[in-house]
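JOB MANIFEST
job_type = single_chain_structure
chain_count = 1
residues = 152
[input]
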Amino acid sequence: MFKKLLKGFGIALLILICLFILIAVWSGYKSSEYEKTAIPYMDTAIADISSWELDTFKSYLTPFEVENINEDDLKRLIKALSKMGALVEIGEYQFNTVTSRALTSGGSGTFVTYTVPAIYENGDAVLTITLKEEGDSFSVYHFKLDSLALFD
């Protein structure tokens, strides 16, 4: 009886370990797949967005986001983010996730999320960027800047 219980526990543990290995391999594969395309896009997008100009910011957003965003709110957001000053340096990108999901606006999409440290004139920040895959390129679906410098 005890041997069967131990054997069952061992099999469950082995399956769990194999599952974690499979997830790690799949994540590594997906990460390397987007490394060649998403990172160069983000290098350009972050530098351009960090000019803190409304039209430039909007040019990187997904068409759905541009249609549904309140322009006054976006202006206030850009004004607040402009307190960071000019972009000085972008750090090393950290791949977070890749997901395929249905959108409330209809259709579906593939989204890839990265986190990257950045240094601005007025302080350090951590950027979290979610890109929507658009054929051979991307558009910015979500852009988040976390920095204590915004509270000064």
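[summary]
The domain at 1-151 is CATH 3.10.450.590 (Nuclear Transport Factor 2; Chain: A,).
The two ends are 66 Å apart (CA to CA).
exit_status = 0
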